[in-house]
Amino acid sequence: MIPIKIGIIGKGNLGTYLLQKINKEQLLPNTKITAILDEREKAKVELPAFAAGYECAAFHDIDSFLQSDIDIVVECSNIEAAQEYSLEVIEKKDLMLISIGAFAGSTFGKLIEQAAKTSGNRVYLPSGAIGGLDVLKAAKFSGGIESVTLTTRKPAHSLTSEGIPAEQTLFDGPARDAIVQFPKNANVAIVLSLAGIGVEKTQVRIIADPEVTRNIHRITAKGSFGEFDLTIKNNPSPDNPKTSHITGASILAALANINSAVVVGS
Ligand SMILES: NC(=O)C1=CN([C@@H]2O[C@H](COP(=O)(O)OP(=O)(O)OC[C@H]3O[C@@H](n4cnc5c(N)ncnc54)[C@H](O)[C@@H]3O)[C@@H](O)[C@H]2O)C=CC1
Ligand SMILES: O=C([O-])CC(=O)C(=O)O
Q1: How many other CB atoms are found less than 10 A from the CB of residue 6?
Q2: What is the interface pTM, i.e. ipTM, of the complex?
Q3: pLDDT tens, N- to C-terminus, the chain (266 residues)
Q4: Is the distance from the beta carbon of residue 81 to the nearest atom of ligand 1 less than 6 Å?
Q5: What does UniProt list as catalytic (predicted)?
Q6: How, if at all, do strands 4-9 and 31-37 pair?
């Protein structure tokens, strides 16, 4: 088994979850987070002590972060940071990205794909808060997909600061626009689009619902393979209710896959 040394960008809810599960609980054999990057001014004060608490090195500039002894960078920050750093990262290291909304524009996606081909490094996009990507990927080889829809229903406070008395559809349109309006809630729409029929054709509804306590994603698809209907009712992360708790576990599963002798699912 090849040891994996990870550098992370973002030490919020998901970053801290990974530090806890990988470095403290040692859930992934032979895997360690060794570096954390934050170039922002405020990080100069707080990052070193935080990083030391997880036996990691703190980095304040991308060049020395990438020169350090890491094999893969795991991004868990936001779409802007993902876009800012991805190209530089992929030229030198493998990259796992969870702010997948960064890939909504085709130019960025193509740029990163080309850079990955040139460098020989790989980009991993975990399934995050949803499932069913395996079915869509297979369906594309099985005569094609006619339609894909995603209906996201979240507790109202995760989607809007306005108190609403009853459920309200806040968005109805293509995934391409969903991520622009909901950059912290529609990353799943983009990974679904990448697995299936793209950001223009993937139809998304986002509903704020004061009656629900979970982050609910229903995916439907039709094609020559048949029909697909999957609903996942995720518990929110305790530290960031917008983010479903399973998202961090999905990153762990994607990291475990890198080293698996037997890979289950596509
Ligand atoms: N693909 C998926 O299924 C899902 C993706 N996400 C996305 O994952 C990302 C992380 O989620 P959480 O950890 O819950 O968010 P969070 O808000 O708890 O943590 C993000 C952290 O990144 C830090 N950050 C922002 N800009 C940075 C920069 N330039 N350099 C270093 N650190 C920076 C913030 O200070 C914060 O600590 C978000 O973009 C979120 O929208 C969340 C849920 C599901
Ligand atoms: O965690 C979730 O349920 C989905 C989410 O926020 C996203 O895709 O950005």
Answers
A1: 26
A2: 0.99
A3: 678 999 999 999 999 999 999 999 999 999 999 999 999 999 999 999 999 999 999 999 999 999 999 999 999 999 999 999 999 999 999 999 999 999 999 899 999 999 999 999 999 999 999 999 999 999 999 999 999 999 999 999 999 998 899 999 999 999 999 999 999 999 999 999 999 999 999 999 999 999 999 999 999 999 999 999 999 999 999 999 999 999 999 999 999 999 899 999 98
A4: yes
A5: 217
A6: parallel
Rounded to an integer, what is the distance from CA 201 to the centroid of its chain?
A: 21
Strands 72-75 and 57-59: unpaired
CA distance 251 to 143: 30
6, 72 contact by CB (below 8 A)? yes
Residues 75/94, Cβ–Cβ less than 8 Å: no
Distance CA 90, CA 152 (A): 31
CB of 247 within 6 A of ligand 1: the answer is yes
Start-end of CATH 3.40.50.720 domains in the chain: 4-128+246-258
CA distances 33 to 69, 137, 256, Å, are 11, 31, 14
Nearest atom in ligand 1 to the alpha carbon of residue 237 is 14
Give me the CATH topology for the region 4-128+246-258.
Rossmann fold (3.40.50)
Q: Which bound ligand lies closest to the C-alpha atom of 250?
A: 1
187 lines ligand 2 (CB under 6 A): yes
Residue 245 annotated to the active site: no
User: How far is it, in rounded angstroms, from Cα 174 to Cα 67?
Assistant: 40
CATH of domain 133-234: 3.30.360.10
Count of CA atoms in the C-beta half-sphere (13 A) of 75: 29
